Amino acid sequence: MTYDIMNSNHSSICFSALRGQGKAKKLLRRTLAAGRIPHAYIFRGPDGVGKSMFARGVAAAINCHDTSQVEACGVCSSCRKFRSGNHPDILVVSPEKGAIKIGQIRQMSRELTYPAYESKMRVVILEDVHTMRREAANSLLKTLEEPPADNLLVLTARASHGMLSTLTSRCQTVPFSALTIDDTASILMEKGLDTGTAQLLAQLSEGSPGKAVLLNKKDIISLWKEVLAVVSDSGIDSQRDVGIVLQLGEKMAALKENIMPLLGLLRIWLRDLLMGNTDLTIFLEAGDIRLKKWNSEQLFARLQAIDQAEKELARNCNRSLVCEVLLFRLQ
Question: Could you tell me if 264 and 178 are in contact, meaning their C-beta atoms sit under 8 angstroms apart?
Fold first, then answer.
């Protein structure tokens, strides 16, 4: 297994520096100030809104040597180790090949049997615990049922995914929410994107800066536009233009693990059409497209086709075949 120690390039040292998430900030500041830290938190919310960054900021605050303030000072020896990525008492367990494995949980549990190296409390951050298989979740449950002293587990999870109720019931839940479109666009512009691109990405990511950065980095927007152009154009016949559909399916499959964000964009587009909001179609670059007209039943069927594709990809079905079948169903 791989333990990723804190990397200062991935988070701010102060959790209050995170944009938005007022409820989470208020709760953690109050808890840390009172010294009533539970044995486990679960941060639940959409992808890309800063759950892991927030968890790292909390870990830095707990290990900071300056007790005159709630958050990390940024200058003590603990904070310097945090910044350099060499803090021995802040550990991060991340999914390996898309899932947290039972071996990772067992190794983590063994680590917890030893005392912290230099801090009063060790902090372990388990990212994306919704990716755990049942056996890994059950192994983690044993640790949560009998938590070793002086250890804090911070779990992050996607709110839309179901988890074992026995797991969540043993953690204090901290809800995270999507950011406003303006806040998301502002963050993207701070990263150097122009206003128009930042606004588009903020809209399509639905207030998730992390997702917006991924969409931009992997150029998923361009492929999304290409898919829209093919499935929306009444001049393209899936029976006649099979080659076009198959080539597009190959491009989608080449995204590998980044197919899911693309499917998410397609879902947003179809949902907007269903609600009578066709604003997103203005981003189609081909001006001569003769857009198809779908009724509510047809739109629902296409949304269900995306749901089915996601389930098949989660079961590791053939990626190319799933993409090709989806494109034919979207026609």
Answer: no
CA pair distance 281, 178, nearest whole angstrom: 23
- Residues lower than pLDDT 50 in the chain: 1-11, 280-282, 285-287
Contacts 24+ apart (CB under 8 A), 284-289: 284/225, 284/228, 284/229, 284/232, 285/225, 285/229, 286/229, 286/233, 289/229, 289/232, 289/233, 289/235
**Torsion angle in degrees (nearest 10) through CA of 323, 325, 327, 330:** -130
Class of domain 3-175: alpha beta
C-alpha dihedral (6, 157, 63, 109), degrees to nearest 10? -90
How many other β-carbons are positioned within 10 Å of the β-carbon of residue 308? Answer: 14
| Single pTM value for the model | 0.74
Any idea where the domains of the chain sit in the sequence? Answer: 3-175, 218-330
Backbone angles phi, psi at 73, to 5 degrees: -75, -30
